[in-house]
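Moderator note: this is an archived Q&A kept for reference. The question asked for a predicted structure of one protein chain; the sequence and the answer are reproduced below.
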Amino acid sequence: MALVTVKPTRIDTAIANEIADHTNPGLEHTAETLTWGADEHVLLALAAAGWLYTRLRQPQTRQLADHVLIVSLAATALPHVLKSVFNQTRPDRLTVRGHWRGIPFSGRSRDAFPSGHAVHMGALASAAGLLPPARRQVARALAVALSLTRVALLAHWTSDVVAGFTLGVLVERLLRPFTLGKSRQPRPSGSRVRP
């Protein structure tokens, strides 16, 4: 039994009502398909495959692959722990007209806070800081878009997604010094290397 019950904010409720009033089955099916890109099972499988690939073919990127795998594992475990502490009813359980317009049922009814998908996407957006600028921008835009699918599906309140995304950023940033050390830390813009 969870220790804390979380209530949606007025903004959460207003956004969910707008989605329920204006969605359609096509939008919902698209969001349902896209949301798989942020699913913990998919991301863990990709992280494990990347880790294995670096062991076989890319030894110079092993440290980065270790980082991605460890962050993925932490981003998978954290939401499960937090959902055992917090109870919050998913918005899709509180709408009738939304279901008429194609809103599906998502996960366990009281597991809205935080969004696990958003935790993964926050970690991805944070780790994108290790990429060149063009790739970084694409990765971050993708992370935000995939997180928003959880709101579009009424699987989570907007605040659940914002909280999950923020937690993902924190997880990646807290683990970075341990998994990458100083060797892969991005230098601040304009910093100079001393001879």
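Archived answer notes: The mean pLDDT is 85.
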